Amino acid sequence: MVSPDTVRFAQFNASLNRSNAGELTTDLSTPDNAQAKTVAEIIQRVNPDVLLVNEFDFDESGTAAELFQQNYLGVSQNGVDPVDYPYYYVAPSNTGIPSGFDLNNNGSVGGPDDAFGFGFFPGQFGMAVYSKYPIDTENVRTFQNFLWKDMPGALLPDDPNTPEPNDWYSAEELEAFRLSSKSHWDIPIEVNGETVHFLTSHPTPPVFDGPEDRNGRRNHDEIRFWSDYVTPGEGDYIYDDAGNTGGLATGSKFVIAGDQNADPFDGDSVEDAILQLLNNPLINTSVTPSSEGGVDAAERQGGANTTHINNPAFDTADFADTTPGNLRADYVLPSQNLEITDAQVFWPTSDAPQFNLVGNFPFPSSDHRLVWVDLATEPAADPNRRTVAGVDFLGEVTFPTSLTFEGTQVGGLSGIAYDAANDIYYSIADDRSQFNPARFYTLSIDLNDGELQDGDISFEDVTTLRDESGEPFAALSLDPEGIALAPDGTVYITSEGDATRLINPFVNQFSLNGGQLGELAIADKYLPTADNSSGIRNNLAFESATITPDGRYLYTATENALNQDGPTANLEQESVSRIIKYDLLTGQAVEEFAYVVDEVADAPIPADGFRTNGLVELLAIDNSGTLLALERSFSAGVGNTVKLYEISTQGALDISSRDSLLFEEGTAFEVDPTVSKRELLDFADLGITPDNLEGLALGPKLADGRQSLIVVSDNNFSDTQVTQFIALSLDLNTIPVVAPTVETPPTFDIEEPPSGPVLSSADDPAIYVHPTDSSRSLVITALKNGGLQVHDLQGELLQTIAPDSPEDLRYNNVDTLYEFNLGGETVDLAIASDRLNDTIAIYRIDPETRQLTNITASGILETIFGVDDSEQTAYGVANYISPISGKTYAFVTQSDGNQIAQLELIDNGAGKVDARIVRVLTVPVPTDGREPLTEGVVVDAELGYLYIGQEQVGIYKFSAEPEGGDEGVLIDVVKPEGSALEADVEGLALYYGANGTGLPDCLQ
After folding, report:
1. pLDDT tier at 751 (50, 70, 90 boundaries)?
2. Range 391-735: architecture per CATH
3. Maximal CA-CA distance, the chain
């Protein structure tokens, strides 16, 4: 084993193939085959725990695989420690098996090209797997006989000489043609008590064919096979050689390995062939195996390597210098739920002592290089986001308030948590130790048939909560509301406290036997006060509790605003709740976020009757701040309106430093941004009457792969209500995380009075590329009322340009401009839009000092759009140098408006830059109530096009030339949720491709 904490998976196309059947066995029967010794030494030096060897001729008895272990791997090569693999696996390969058809359409049947996989004899170029860990041979799945035609949407090749599509192979041939050129194997390996599926293959090279590209297309689909196999819902069509169907079980750990014969950027493979794996969000590509030898080889050999796009450090194959050059062809790709700790390619540089093992052509070992990846045996938390794509109703069960269980009155079920290991639920009773001592129930819920109906729910146990003294909680000493199960088998329970009695809220930890184990600290801002000047409001405090899937963070929230944060929800009034995020490793609150609770849904009857709406539950669905939120509105005489939302704290402003969200005079701070929310379900749409729904729990996965969700109600122990259970199914999609390589400290957009510090919000960045040394480039960021900040590429702050008061300016966006002629000197500029003053600010960038200097001409455009209200004013900005006239322009969009101004930038002759309005473009104002906001703007400097993002409408395209016409074209529109372009369309950028083939990119 590499280390007690890691396991090393490797792949090596070792070129241990021979020209005739049985020849490899003969070569390996003695310990002196030079090539085999060199291959073995490479393997011994890397010492992988699990190894795939490609191009290892297959024999039915497995003799060659045994001899390679016995005579080579198990014998020291050049003093390197032997390596022992007690487990190995070999199976037949399609290579060299006659098909009986003329598959290459050359007019004759027979030969290696007409075999099911290219080969001169059956098993040539096969595979072998060696492992230090046990192989679960009974559950190995092979897919040697899977037919290509049975893959939906298969890229079957087309005969260019006929009008019919996809007809290179006849119907009869397709009834026999196998997808795998060798085979695809799913080999379960038992690693420290867990199963890791080793998914091995060796797709055909995408060459040695004609314009029909039959090998390129087959290569593409052989790669696609594994992508579909590991993606829930995509591999249902797959069948194995034993007749079993379907792909890999959801949540399984796996490692895809093999010579895939496809480079992501270079070579002859179909364009997106390997990207099907590299872009699959279930596959961990956070670390790319690399070597210094690959770089050295590309530089030494030149040829095609000089035109390659891919980083030569990632190359794994030393191919011909003429074409295709060196490529990344070999891969070891773990699942996202396995953490990569290291990854390398064994490719020494030409001056290294071990270079003789890889050498130059003719190679002493192979033209491929061994690739390895180290994986943590304790998987890292999945960083990817989850999002709900669909919600379906599975059923409803109710219990009367008169129900009793083990001497307790069942009711007040305001929170619920699922124990997946034991397939049971824990539900907290909202009983202030008045009816019975504070407690939680243990329940079983049967969803095996995909429905919830009478008889599916049973109460199994009841557990009394005990305080730190070991006694049951005294009457009225708590108000338990939320419950969350931690990975250590304890539960965290929240209490609202009682503001009228000055009883503090809590988030406490309990054993499953009910004993209190600890508590999380509650900040003073949440504690009730006698005069209601601050702290929680009565019965509007900590209703919720949830823990992230990795067990690291706990979230809870106030049901409505704290006294010092604003009003409660009413018919025409939202309320700002606080979501608190605790780090359970430290027990400390680490962030707080503002969540806007909707207005009360319905007017009560009578009109002065009781009404409320609140955030009553949270449920984390990933480790990246995505949660489900339950809002329950109640109006006397009407009933409950309950809505389920998906919310995200990603990017939301951390307000933990603020004790109050109000100024002294009672006006609210601008909290930007708050937690984002998206409505998933109004429970009334299910055709049922929702009770006082307050608890959420993710249950087991259903048989069809969907995620179950249980919702439970607090009946308030009222005879007019019921305890209601609702089961839903969720279609969950994965959004791949983009992990930052550098992250700067947060800034804030809470506007202090003029006497206080100017806090700010990072809104829009611009990259300044240094003219001579790219490593000295800059990131210039607009901070709204905070001005500008300048960072280097390592995230170090180099300069802050701050106003004296937040009321002086509001820089919303910034863009860079190169080679502006100022007084006969060429200078680089940063141009910021000033939303507060409806103008622009212009700064000179000094590439030597990396400092910005304000060179805005005095009196520059006192107003661009003629409206000085800080709303319909300058917003987005993008710069453009006309290739026709050589003039320099800035395009400025209008916040809360539909205008775009084109400004010409002018040298005023005094070392400053002035501007004049050249023209004003407009985009249509929506007539359906959507706002006309335009912010995102980018200019194609090569083709002279201007792209405008209208946030709730889509993307418009204009000519960037003043004489190019004022009519814009809507090139893409905001579509329903889940489509490619969703509201809000805020940021636009341009990707430049070769020969004008780039594309505008959108940040939503």
Report:
1. very low
2. 5 Propeller (2.115)
3. 97
